[in-house]
Write a structure and sequence with these properties.
By secondary structure, the chain is α+β, with helices and mostly antiparallel strands. The chain has 27 helices and 21 strands. It has 3 domains: about 45 residues, no CATH class; about 180 residues, Orthogonal Bundle (Penicillin binding protein transpeptidase fold); about 375 residues, Beta-lactamase (3-Layer(aba) Sandwich). It comes from Streptomyces thermolineatus.
Length: about 850
C-alpha cells in the first residue's frame, strides 16, 4: 500500500474532508475514520485536555452540551447560598438603628384645665401624644397582637413568608401587601419612609432583625402603638382614643380596643365616618378580632360572649377641629411662656411636643368671663351704626389671692381674630386703680418730714405713717407742692402745673378715705409727693407689679396711674391686699410632664409685702369705694357678698378699669379702643362709645366685673374681710394743718425759673405743655396724648423674674414687645405700639 493508503486521520473532521475529496474506497475510508477517532480521543485523554469546569460539556453534542449537570447545578446553588448568607451576615453586622424620622417623634403638647380635663392639643401639625405601655390596657395590647401578629411575643421580628410575598408582588407590579410583623411596621413608622420599594423592604428586614434581637418586646409594641395612624387626624393610640371615644387610652374597654385595632389594617376602608360600606367592614373586622383573641388564647370565650353584634362600639361624632380658637390660644401662649421659662427650653424643643401641661385655668370661670364680656358689649355697642363703637378692646384676668393661680383670662374676641392677649401686657395705662399703692406706701412707710433732708437722704425714723383720717386738699387745679410744703413742684424749665379733678369739681379738705371713695385726684398726687415717688413705686412692686418701662418715668402723675401693668399683674397685686399683705407670683401651670415623666411641679412661694394692718386698711378704704363710691355697681347688695375695689379712667378717656376682689378671688377688667389694623397703632378716645359722653371704670368694666364674679363665686362660701386695727397718725397736706401755713409769695409761684427747694433731690424730668381739659384725668400736665400703646411682647404669669432691658419689657416668658417714647415700635406679634408721652392717670 502507498503512503496515502496507510495515513491515519487525526480527527473526524479530517476524515470527512478526505471522504469528500475521494481518497480511498468506502470500507478503507471507514476504517480510517474509526481508527482516527479512537486515536484522537485517546490522545486528548492522554494529554489531560479535560477542563476544570466542564462547561460547555465536552462529552455532549449539540444543545445538550449547554445543559449543566446535576453536580454543576448543586454547586451553583450552594455557592449562591454561601454568598447570600455571607452578605446577610455582613449587612446584619453593619446595620445600625437609624435616627427616628422627625415626623415619627413629633407630637402635640396636651394642655389640661385645672382639674385634669383635656383643654386642647397643640404645638405641631402632628396630632400625637405618646403614652407608656402602662397606659395601654392589656386588652388593647392583646387585640392588636391578635389582629396584626399573633407570634409577636416569640418571633425574631420578621415574617419571611410575608416579606417574600411583598417583594414578589412589588417586582411583578402586583398589589403591594404588608405581610409585616408588628416589629416591621414599627420600623417602617419610626425609621423609614412609607414608600413601597424593594430597597425599603430589605432595609426594613435588617433593621427589624436587629431590633428584634436587641429591643424589648414591650418597647416595640409601645412604639408601634404610638406611631400608627388611626384616622381622624390621630397619630398614636392616645390621640385615637380621644378622637373616637373622647377618653384616654388607659380608659378604653375591650370592645373599643378591638375597634381601634381594626383601624390598623386600613382606616380608609374600616372607618364608619366614610359611610355604610365602611361601617359594615368595620363591624366584621371588629368581630373577627374578638374571635381571633379567643382563638390564639388572648381572651376567654366568656369574655368574648359579652360583645354581641348589637354592642358594636360606634365611635362618637367627630369633633370639629376647634384648636386654639376663642380664649384657648391666649391661654396656651401664657402656659408656653411659663413652661419655657421654668424648664429652660427653646421654642423648637417645645414645638417638638410630648409635653403634658396642666394649667391653672378653670373652664367654668373662663367660659363665664368670655360670655359676660360678649353679652355686655353686644347689649351696649352698635359698631355698624356708630363709628365710636368700633375697635373696642377688653382685657381681664382672675387670680387666686395667696396662691397666684391664674383662674381665668379674657384675651380678646377670638385668638384667630385678635392675636394680642389683652390679659397680658398691652401698654394700657390703668389710671386711678393705681391709687391704692400710693395709699399703701403712705400707710406703711409714711410721709416725709417737711423739715428733713430730701427723700433719698431722709432716714425712715423721720417719716410719719398716715391714717385714713389724714386731711388733704381736694380742690380742683391746685398747685402741687414738693414734700417740704414750701416750694411748688416745677419741671426743668421752672414751669408749674395745675391738677384737675374729674369734671373740674372741688371738694375742699377731705380725708384719704373720702378721697379714695370719690377718686379725687388732687389729694393723691400730693400724697405721692409727700411719700416720695420711689416709695410709691416700691409699694406697687412689693404688691406684685413689674418694674417695667412704664414705671421708668417718676413724674408726679405716676401716682395717678401712668404705668401700664397687665390685667394679670394688677389682679395679683390687688390679691396681695386681699390676703392681708401676703404676696405671691402669678402662674399659669401647675405641673408639666414629658412623655409621662414629671418635669415641673409648682410650689407657691409667699412673702410679706406689707404688714397685715396696712393691707387690711387699704382693703377697708376700697370697701368704701364699692359700697358708697365710684364702684357701687359691685356693692354687696348687687354682688351678694363683700368686695373691695377701685375704678380707674385715663387721660382723654382712652382706657377704663375696674379692679376688685373678694377674699377668694381677685379680678380686673379693662376696656380701651385701638385699631389693630391701622398702620400707626395708638389708643383712641372712648368719648361717644355706646352713645355716652365718656366711659369710666364705674360703667362697663364694673358691670362686667360684677356679673362675672357672681357666676365665678356661685356656691362659694361668703367670706368677710379682716377688720383692720387703727394705724398711723392724722397728717395734714399742704395748707391743711390746724395752723395753716402761709402761701408762697407770688414771686415764687410765678417765677419762670425754678426757686430753691428744701429738697436736694433731683427734679423729675420735663413734661409736655398742658392743654385745656374738662375731664377728670387731664392731670397737672394737661390732656397729653399718650403717643400710643405697647401691645404684645411680654407675658405675665410666665416667670418669676421679669427684667427690663433697654426698651424691652419682660413680664415673664417672652421678650418680643418693645416701646419707643413718642413713637410706635412694632414688636412681639406685630401689634406693638409706642408708649410716648404721659397720661395723667385718672379718677373714677
Amino acid at each position: 500500500m502507498g503512503d496515502d493508503d496507510t495515513r491515519e486521520y487525526g480527527s473526524r473532521a479530517e476524515a470527512r474532508r478526505a471522504a469528500r475529496s475521494g481518497g480511498g474506497g468506502g470500507r478503507a475510508a471507514g476504517r480510517r475514520r474509526a481508527a482516527g477517532a479512537g486515536a484522537g480521543a485517546g490522545a486528548a485523554a492522554a494529554n489531560g485536555r479535560k477542563r476544570l469546569v466542564d462547561y460547555p460539556r465536552h462529552d455532549r453534542y449539540g444543545w445538550k452540551r449547554w445543559v449543566p449537570s446535576w453536580k454543576q447545578v448543586t454547586g451553583i446553588c450552594l455557592t449562591g447560598l454561601l454568598f447570600l448568607l455571607g452578605g446577610s451576615a455582613v449587612a446584619y453586622a453593619l446595620v445600625e438603628e437609624p435616627n427616628p424620622n422627625e415626623a415619627a417623634v413629633q407630637q402635640n403638647n396636651v394642655y389640661y384645665w385645672k382639674g385634669g380635663s383635656r383643654m386642647v392639643a397643640a404645638g405641631s401639625d402632628t396630632n400625637r401624644q405618646r403614652v407608656g405601655l402602662d397606659k395601654m390596657p392589656m386588652h388593647l395590647q392583646n387585640a392588636v397582637i391578635a389582629a396584626e401578629n399573633d407570634t409577636f411575643r416569640t418571633d425574631r421580628g420578621i415574617s419571611v413568608k410575608g416579606m417574600a410575598r411583598a417583594v414578589v408582588n412589588m417586582a411583578t407590579g402586583g398589589e403591594t401587601q404588608g405581610g409585616s410583623t408588628i416589629t416591621q411596621q414599627y420600623v417602617k413608622n419610626m425609621f423609614l419612609t412609607q414608600d413601597q420599594t424593594i430597597k425599603r423592604k430589605f432595609q426594613e428586614l435588617f433593621i427589624s432583625l436587629k431590633l428584634g434581637d436587641r429591643e424589648d418586646k414591650d418597647k416595640v409594641l409601645e412604639g408601634y402603638l404610638n406611631t400608627s395612624w388611626f384616622g381622624r387626624n390621630a397619630n398614636g393610640i392616645q390621640a385615637a382614643a380621644q378622637a373616637y371615644y373622647y377618653k384616654n387610652a388607659e380608659d378604653l374597654n375591650a370592645s373599643e380596643s378591638a375597634f381601634l385595632a381594626a383601624l390598623l389594617k386600613g382606616e380608609g376602608t374600616l372607618n364608619p365616618d366614610y359611610g355604610p360600606k365602611q361601617e359594615k367592614a368595620a363591624r366584621e373586622r371588629w368581630a373577627w378580632i374578638l374571635d381571633r383573641q379567643v382563638e390564639v388564647g388572648l381572651m376567654d370565650a366568656s369574655e368574648r360572649a359579652k360583645y354581641t353584634a348589637d354592642k358594636f362600639p360606634m365611635p362618637k361624632p367627630q369633633k370639629p377641629a376647634t384648636g386654639l380658637d376663642g380664649q384657648k390660644g391666649y391661654m396656651v401662649n401664657l402656659a408656653n411662656s411659663f413652661v419655657k421659662s421654668e424648664l429652660g427650653i427653646t421654642d423648637k424643643q417645645l414645638g417638638m411636643g410630648g409635653y403634658q401641661i396642666y394649667t391653672t385655668f378653670e373652664k367654668e370661670k373662663v367660659d363665664a368671663l368670655d360670655k359676660v364680656v360678649k353679652r355686655v358689649l353686644k347689649k351696649n355697642l352698635d359698631p355698624k351704626n356708630r363709628p365710636e363703637d368700633q375697635h373696642i378692646q377688653v382685657g381681664g384676668a382672675s387670680v387666686v389671692p395667696g396662691d397666684g393661680a391664674i383662674a381665668a383670662i379674657y384675651g380678646g374676641e377670638n385668638y384667630f381674630k385678635h392675636f394680642t392677649n389683652n390679659a397680658d401686657y398691652t401698654g394700657v395705662q390703668v389710671g386711678s386703680t393705681y391709687k391704692p399703692f400710693v395709699l399703701a406706701a403712705a400707710l406703711d412707710k409714711g410721709v416725709l418730714d417737711p423739715n428733713g433732708p430730701g427723700p433719698d437722704e431722709q432716714p425712715d425714723d423721720m417719716r410719719t405713717p398716715v391714717s385714713l383720717k389724714s386731711i388733704y386738699n381736694g380742690d380742683n387745679k391746685i398747685k402741687l407742692y414738693e414734700y417740704d410744703h414750701k416750694t411748688y413742684w416745677q419741671n426743668e424749665d421752672g414751669e408749674q402745673w395745675l391738677q384737675p379733678n374729674d369734671g373740674n369739681q372741688s371738694y375742699g379738705p377731705v380725708d384719704l378715705r373720702e378721697a379714695m371713695r370719690l377718686s379725687i385726684n388732687t389729694p393723691f398726687i400730693q400724697l405721692g409727693m409727700d411719700v416720695g415717688l420711689k416709695e410709691v413705686k416700691n409699694a406697687a412692686v412689693a404688691a406684685g407689679l413689674r418694674d417695667d418701662k412704664s414705671m421708668a418715668s417718676l413724674t408726679p402723675t405716676f401716682s395717678l396711674g401712668t404705668s401700664a401693668p397687665s390685667a394679670i399683674r394688677l389682679a395679683n397685686a390687688y390679691g396681695t391686699f386681699a390676703k392681708s399683705g401676703e404676696k405671691v407670683e402669678p402662674y399659669s401651670v401647675l405641673k408639666v410632664e414629658y412623655n409621662g415623666e414629671v418635669k415641673y411641679k409648682h410650689e407657691t412661694k409667699k412673702e410679706r409685702a406689707f404688714p397685715a394692718d396696712v393691707a387690711d386698711t387699704v382693703t377697708d378704704a376700697l370697701r368704701t369705694v364699692v359700697e358708697e363710691g365710684t364702684g357701687s355697681v359691685a356693692k354687696e347688695a348687687n354682688l351678694g357678698r363683700p368686695a373691695a375695689g377701685k375704678t380707674g379712667t385715663t387721660d382723654d378717656n382712652k382706657s377704663a378699669w375696674f379692679a376688685g376682689y373678694t377674699p377668694q378671688l381677685s379680678t380686673t377688667v379693662g376696656m380701651w379702643r385701638v385699631d389693630s389694623t391701622a398702620k400707626t397703632q395708638e389708643f383712641l378716645s372712648m368719648n361717644g362709645v355706646a352713645g355716652l359722653d365718656s366711659i369710666h371704670g364705674a360703667s362697663f368694666p364694673a358691670e362686667i366685673w360684677t356679673e362675672y364674679m357672681k357666676i365665678a363665686l356661685k356656691g362659694k362660701p361668703v367670706m368677710q374681710f379682716p377688720v383692720p386695727q387703727p394705724i398711723g397718725d392724722v397728717v395734714y397736706g399742704p395748707g391743711q394743718s390746724p395752723e395753716p401755713e402761709p402761701e408762697p409769695s407770688e414771686t415764687e409761684s410765678e417765677s419762670p425759673t425754678p426757686e430753691p427747694s428744701a429738697s436736694p433731690t433731683k427734679k423729675p424730668g420735663k413734661d409736655p405743655k398742658p392743654s385745656p381739659s374738662t375731664g377728670e384725668t387731664c392731670g397737672i400736665f394737661g390732656c397729653v396724648d399718650s403717643g400710643g400703646t405697647t401691645t404684645g411682647g411680654t407675658t405675665d404669669g410666665g416667670t418669676t423674674d421679669g427684667t427690663t432691658t433697654g426698651g424691652t419689657t419682660t413680664d415673664g416668658g417672652t421678650t418680643d414687645g418693645t416701646t419707643t417714647d413718642g413713637s410706635t415700635t412694632t414688636g412681639g406679634n406685630g401689634n406693638g405700639n409706642g408708649n410716648g408721652g404721659l397720661f395723667s392717670g385718672g379718677g373714677g
